Amino acid sequence: MKFGLVDRQGYVPDMNYGDAGKELACFVPSDYSFEQVSYNNGEGEVKVDGHVWRFFFTQEGIGAELMGGIVTLHEAQKFLQDVKSHIWGDKHQQVQVFLSGAAPD
User: Which domain of life is it from (predicted)?
Assistant: First the structure.
C-alpha cells in the first residue's frame, strides 16, 4: 500500500540524514525505534514495529509504502501523521496524506 505526503506548495524541507546505518532517521519520527533495512541515494526501507516501510521521493513530495506486515488504516494514518510532523513540523498545515497508486492506462 502506497501513501503520499504532499505539500500544496511543493515544499519539501531539506532532509537531515542520520549517521551511517541510520540515514533514514530523517523520515522516521524520533519516538519510533527502527532498523534500517536498506538505503540507496536518499531512499530505502526501515523496519518499525515489525513492519517494513519504504520511503522515497516523488514528483509531488515524499512517498511511503508498506512493504511488509499488516497494519490497520488507523495505525498507518497515525504513523504517517507522525512522519509528516517529523519532516514538516506540527504547525505546517499544507501537507496532505493520501493513498497513491498507478493511474490506469
Answer: Bacteria
